[in-house]
Every structure is written in C-alpha cells, then in structure tokens.
Amino acid sequence: MIAQRIMFSCMAVLFAVCSFAQTQVEQWGRFETVLHYKANGNAFTDVRLTATFSNGDTSINVSGFYDGADVFRIRFMPPATGNWSYQTSSNIRLLNNQKGSFQCIQPAAANHGPVKVHKQYHFSFADGKLFYPVGTTAYAWNHMGQALQQQTLQSLKQSGFNKLRMCVFPKNYDLVIEEPELFPYEVKQQATSKTDKWDLTRFNPAFFRQLEQQIDALQQLGIEVDLIVFHPYDKGRWGFDAMAQEANFRYIHYLTARLAAFRNIWWSVANEWDLVKPKTHDDWVALTKEISKNDPYKHLLSIHGSTAKYFEYWMPEITHVSVQDEAPVMHWGAASILRNVYYKPVVYDEVGYEGNLQHRWGRYSAEEMTYLMWMATIGGTYVTHGETYRYKDNTDTIFWAKGGTWKGKSWMRAAFMRKILEEGGGPLEPADISRDMHTATAGKGYYLLYFGKEINEYWVFNLPTKNGQFERAKPGDRFKAEIIDTWEMTVTPIAEEFVLGEQNDYRYYDKAMKKIKLPMKPYLALRITAIKK
Amino acid sequence: MIAQRIMFSCMAVLFAVCSFAQTQVEQWGRFETVLHYKANGNAFTDVRLTATFSNGDTSINVSGFYDGADVFRIRFMPPATGNWSYQTSSNIRLLNNQKGSFQCIQPAAANHGPVKVHKQYHFSFADGKLFYPVGTTAYAWNHMGQALQQQTLQSLKQSGFNKLRMCVFPKNYDLVIEEPELFPYEVKQQATSKTDKWDLTRFNPAFFRQLEQQIDALQQLGIEVDLIVFHPYDKGRWGFDAMAQEANFRYIHYLTARLAAFRNIWWSVANEWDLVKPKTHDDWVALTKEISKNDPYKHLLSIHGSTAKYFEYWMPEITHVSVQDEAPVMHWGAASILRNVYYKPVVYDEVGYEGNLQHRWGRYSAEEMTYLMWMATIGGTYVTHGETYRYKDNTDTIFWAKGGTWKGKSWMRAAFMRKILEEGGGPLEPADISRDMHTATAGKGYYLLYFGKEINEYWVFNLPTKNGQFERAKPGDRFKAEIIDTWEMTVTPIAEEFVLGEQNDYRYYDKAMKKIKLPMKPYLALRITAIKK
C-alpha cells in the first residue's frame, strides 16, 4: 500500500474537494481515490458515498468511507486489466459525480489475486494458481504492542503458514487480558457504563489504519487473512459482542468499505457464533448476508461455531465450511463426510491446539496436531494449525491468542505438509470414497497414502481400482513411490518400480506382489506417482 | 383394513353414484368412502376428485383415486377423535358435492399413529410413544410369489425389526431377476418397445391393492414401511426409472392418494437417486417436493443416494436424513457429525450388509453388522440392518432383495439392541460431543457406553462431566451398572454401587476408583443408571 501511495497524483482541486488517485494499479491491486469534504454533522453517518467502476461491459459498485480529518476514500480492487473509469455518487453535492480513471496493468509475479473456490472442494487464486490453506491462528496478535506484532510477523515469515485467523475486535479471555492501544470507535463524551462508552456512530480511523497495515504486512508474507468480524470474547469488558443489530450493520458497512479491496481478505463472520449470547441464530443469518452483500468481490466467507456447532453452510453466501470439530479428523474416514454433505471446501479451523494448557483443547502433542492436519489432507479437506503453549502467567505469549514466537514442533510439520501438497499433482480427494480411508488421489497417477498412527513393517504395493472423479489406473501401469515421514519431514525414494497386475477384489496389486519396507514408525505416508511412458 | 371394511355401510344411492363409508374409525385409522361412476374416457386422468374433511377448526384436503371397475375411493386418516364430516369436489357432477360424516374414536392399544420426528434428532409415534427405528431391507419382497411373501412376513414377525425398506417398482439386478406377476400400469394396446409397453395414464389397481395388503400386513406386525418411490434397478427392462416427469408426477399423485392414509407409511423418494441416469438432480428436488405436497399428513420423507452421495437434506420437505454411507459408523465419533450438520434425525439406511456376496458391500460379518448398528446408536443415530447371503444361483433368496428366511446372525442382535433401547431412558445423544466418543446419555442419570472392538480387562467407573443437553451428574451421585454383551445378547448386573467423586479433568471417577471387571471380549457395552435417592 505504501508503494502505491507514492503513485498518487492530484487530479483536480474543485471547490472543497481534492481528489487524489493513482494512474496505474496492478490487477487485483488496490486503487484508492481521496476526496476532501468538511461535513457539518457526523461524516460517518451523514455522508453516503459510493462509486461505480467500469471497464468495457463490467461495472462494479463500491462504497467509500470516511477516514477522519475531512478525508473520504474510495478503494477498488480491479479484477481485470485495462482502462477503468469511475464516477462517484453521494448525497453531498461536492462528493457527487466525481470522475476519474486509471490503467489496470498486469499483476506482479507475487500477486495471484484473491483466493476463490476451485473445483468445488478446493481453493485457488484468481489467476488459477492452486492455494492449499495451511493456516494457523493468532486471534488477537493485532491488538498487542508493536514489538510483539513485529515478532509475530517474523514468526509467520519463518513458517509455512499461508492463512491466519485473527479478530477485528480485541479479545478478553483468561489467557488474553491485555488492553489494546487502539479501539474501533471514538469514546463518547459522556459514558454511562464501562461498555456504553463508545460512540458506535463514529469509528476510529487510526484503529482501522493499523488493521490495514497488518493485513498488508501479511499480504507481503503471502498470508491470507481469515478476518473474524464478531466473536464472544468480550464478556462485558468493551461491549463489542453486544451491539444492537443496527450498529452491527454499520460496522459491517464500514469494515467492508475499507477492506473489501484487500485481495488477501477472507470473511469469517464470527468465531464461536453460538457462544455470542446477545445474538440470535437469525441475527447471524442476517449478518452473514449483510457481509456478503456489501462485498463487491465476494471474497471467501464462512462462519465458525464452537465444538460441533454447525451453521447452515449451504447458504449461497457461504463459500466454504469453517468448523470447530475434531471428531472428523481423529479417526479414519470422517473428514470427507462434510465435503460430501456440503459440496463445498471444508476447513477444520479448530480441531484442538498443540500446547500445554489445562483446557483439553489446548494440550495436544505436536504429533497429534500434525496427525490431524494429515487426516484432513487425506480426506480432501484442510485443518488449521494452532499453538497454545504457556509457561508463565497470563502475560505469557500464546501464539493462538497473541502471536509471538513458536514454542511447539508442529508448525514446521505444517510447512513440510504444504510443500508436499504444492509439489503434488493437484487438489486431493479420497480415491475410493468411504471404503479406502487411507488413499487420496489427485488424478493423473498421483496418490498420497497416509498410515496415520499405524505402524507397519512393510506394505504390499496396491492401489484402489476406483479413483475418485479421475481416470482409473489399469493393469500394466507403472509407478514409483516415496516414503514420506511426516514427523521427521523426510522424503525417501524407493528404488524399485511397481507395475499393476490384474484387478483383485477392488484393488490393483503390484503384479509381483512387491513390498515396500517401512520404518517401524507412525505418521508415515507414501507418495505414489505414475511413471510416464 | 379387512376389519374396517366390515364396517362399511351404504350411505346413499344417488343416480349412478353409490357411496359406501364407515361410520366409526379409530384415530389414525383409515376411513374410506366409495363412489361409483362410469367414466366415458380415461377415469384415471379425466376425473378429478378431492374431499375436504372437517372437524371443528381443522380441515384437511385429500385426493380420491380411481380403483378400476367404475369405483372411486377417498381415504382419510383422522388425526383427532370426534366427529368428522366431509364434502367432495369433482369436475364430474355426480362425484361432486357428496357429503358424509363419521365418528373418530380412540385408537386401539396397538395403534400409536404415524411416526413423527421427536426432539429434533429422534422419532416417536403421534401418541408420544418413542419409536427407535431398527429396520431392515427387502427391496423387492413384495414382487415375489405369494409363498415367499408369506415366508417373509413370518421372518419379520419373528424378528425385532420395526421398519422395512421396500420398493414400489419391481427390481432388476443381477441378484434379482424374477418377473413380477403384477405391474403398476396397464399394458398398451400397441407396444412399440419392451419398455414402451405401458399405458402410463392407466394404473393397474390390482397391483396397488396387493401393495396395500402388504403394507397392512406389515402394520399388523408393527412395522413401518419406508416405501421407495423410485429406484435405478430397472436398466431398460420395464422403463419405470425413465418415465417422463409428467408421468412421474401422475404416479406420485396416484400413489399418495392411495397410500397417504396408511399410518405406517414413510416416503423414500428414491433409492440411490444419483444412479437413476434418466433423472437430473433438479428432477429429484421437484419429485421430493411433489410427494410432500401431495401428502396431507406429512409422513416422514427422505431420499437415499449411493455411497456417500448426499442430498440437500436441509430441504424443509425432508424430515430426516436417510443415507448410504458406512464411513460415519466404522470408526469412533463420526456418526454424530450428520446430526450436528442437519439438525434432523439421521438413519444410516445402508452401511453394508451381513452376507457372503462378492460385492464388498454384501459381505460383512454378523459381528461387523452388529457393531455398525451400535456405533450409530452410541452417536445418537440409527443404522438399518440388512442381510445378503446367497448360497445357490440367482434364484436363491437374499433377504435384502427378496425376503425369505434369515440366514445370518445379526438380525437377532438387532432385536436385542431394540430391546435395550426401549428399556432405556429415552433417545440417546453423545454425552460429551466430539470428545467422548463412547458414551451416550438419555439424561436423568442414564448412560450407555459402548466399547466397540476394544477388549478391556477392566474399566474404572467414570462418567463425563458434560451430559449433552441434560442436567449434569454431580459428585456424590450413585449409579448401578450392567454389562451388556451385544453379541451374546446378555445383560449382567454388577453387584456394586458406584459413587461419583470430585470432578477430575472433565470426568467424574468413582470416588474409590472402583473398577468393573470385563470379560476379555469385543462388542461390550455398559448400561449405567442413577440410583434414585
């Protein structure tokens, strides 16, 4: 964003309006135009400002927002190259009918656009590059002091994570008690209570500018931001979980006006929506629709409940399933059920955390956390990692809440798993649904087989005759295999080749019944790839 | 039905119309009135006949149907006692505006009304009596010869099954090749092909009368009929899977007009809907809605796909989930996922069959079939049993298709399981969702704990502190326990009492850490019940 601002040029000074705008923006970059106007009343609520951006047959309507100090901004993420022109619309004459244009150029190498649903169950960037979500969580890292924020960014940089769950509102929890420096609202002149101190009609632009810098900093690291719009971790401290629906909508309008043009944004309507006691289920349906409606780009959107609390993920506004539930990834064969039910991508965004907390959800071993990630992978779904180590009192950093440094061992395994996925033949699905719980396929002769906690001395080379939606293997097909140690993070090629024999009871065995000798260890996988003729 | 027909009395002879009707009918029994009219054209399609039944503020509109030989019938299942009057409506003057009334009396002891959804995830009869579906399947038993039909009814009588999946249309499959005696349609004067031999505008009343007798015979045995309206097992032999949508709708109208007044009917829109190649997904949505719309009583309704093929079970017309998928019941913790997703009762109507077929879905051991039933139970869901033994050629009876005699061992275990359920404290749910995969609760101090394939020497008495939606146990609560051997079908009380100690890491252990000695065998369960103070 800083780089783009250098490109600003003052286009016109007309009466009280000064319009700054860029002349060139990358595809999926962020165009921003600035308008000045001094409102008499409350510029957040009294001024309506939108703009229509047009390029050939395409027209996209976006909302502007008041950024304080008599500055209004309109942001736009151009989805296509070429010449874009725009025209504003406002109830304020001086902001109305402002026009401009810019050139949208090819994206830079690292810019692949926003992430979208790919082939029903998976994700890719807008330019088609596959995106395998290997995420982690740091709910309130953005509300910690600057030093800790920088440390968190450093930790993320050294990790392989490409998605981060984080909250807009600060978090109040027995493990996270820090008071933030910035709040999303102005303080009222006359507060009547601890939570009724905010003027919910006046946002604090400094708060949102910090959030934007954080989102951009994550974008620089190649990390998608799974931004949690509401959450229950307030408990009467600030009152952001208990605003009236009118205020919730106003907040959504402001948030989406500011952030929808950030290409690495995903919307998570809530964390643990069902634990937000002041809101009803119908409130959540309305909030989900409102966020979607106000996002002109239809970024990925989901809503996340407490353990095993499922929402209507079939709603058309919801692009993917984001659930808290470990049951689907603890044992064989369950991870795929939700794919089959919803016909959408499934991300198990909470399945427990590697850590040492007293809470049972926060004391998994690194091995278990890694196992759960692989169990999701083998089912054609995704698990989000998390870390909850605490060695001191509640001022200690726990990555899950505050960010900081890595203390565990599964974060490295997540990076290794991402590498395996990205080296692979494409998005995975179960090769033989509900029958073979261990074997995933990406088609074109690519199989990934996971043994989980099973310890085997050897494995007779065999593949299912079924192959998901893909073309089936056939007798005579030749394969090579590699042993993947998901814990040691090693890949060991097997020297031998394998050749499929005739179909034998829903399987093809190697025609000489060749075996692969396995180290007597858990957490192994096999990568099996066809040898091209 | 035979008993009720004796009560018929001729109410009026008016011109060509003769109206027979009963004067007294049980609540949820079947009232039937008969009208005579000789139609010039096609009485199935040219005559529209409905009746409105009224009792106080309640009015219910039902369709009549043509039963051949100039006879029209109107059936009605009164949902409440008292005086019901009715009035017909027809495009035929002689059938129009016919009136009558009858007295609806208290139901007999064995008549509990139709089965409904109970407490979101379970079932009960209309009178409140709980219904635990312990079903089996005999898809085409009703298309076999009379002797085999009688044998099937005898087998069902000696079993504990209370639900049967069966098809309206005959079945053509490598294991079921018999040609039925009766078909649902009249044969055309001039057939153009093997499948284009039916006059799809003229039903064969004899076919439907046989079906009705079968449904009534099952009712006498206390068995709910999960009636499969469409299926893919035709494959060009008769063409009933490939009728035009107009003919499908006509069939639905006729079927529901005849059968909706049978209290033991459930509608299964299809078996393996996705394998019916002539129909699209949207066709199934329309057919599902059409059946529901034409059933004035809103009997239970679902639709069943092939392995792991899920439908939009969130549709309001669909009362419960009826799926084919073994993945949810093969390993711990997955059975409940679908409950959590759909907020509806879940019946795993196909999870594989006890048998000896070459097909892998038809060669489970009796132990495995029994295990799957219990795995569903412990997850607060239901599994349908099935048997697929074949010892000779394709003329051999396989209960799953043709009925006949039991050849397996799990059918008895299903009866035992039903007994345990019906003795229990009510519908079960996981006590500690997604965390304790073994323990179900019915509240009021009732727990059912299943060990599955685990073999244990002893078990330290302990219960989860969580207890689903029910009141939690507390320190000092006293319990007794019984060992249930689900395979041997025995219940062995433990002499000792157990007393809960203080909460210990999400569990209450017996305060003296008392153990229960277990036989070193798989497939054991514990029934734990609070001792009333």
Automatic annotation (TrEMBL), chains A, B:
Domain of life: Bacteria
Boundaries of every Apiosidase-like catalytic domain copy: 119-389
Keyword Nuclease: no
Transmembrane segments: none
Domain DUF5060: 24-91
Residues covered by the DUF5605 domain: 436-529
SUPFAM superfamilies assigned: (Trans)glycosidases (SSF51445)
Pfam families: Apiosidase (PF13204), DUF5060 (PF16586), DUF5605 (PF18310)
Keywords attached to this entry: Hydrolase, Signal
Keyword Hydrolase belongs to the record: yes
Record-level Gene Ontology MF annotations: hydrolase activity
Secretion signal span: 1-21
PANTHER family: DUF4038 DOMAIN-CONTAINING PROTEIN, LMO1036 PROTEIN
Protein name: Cellulase (Glycosyl hydrolase family 5)
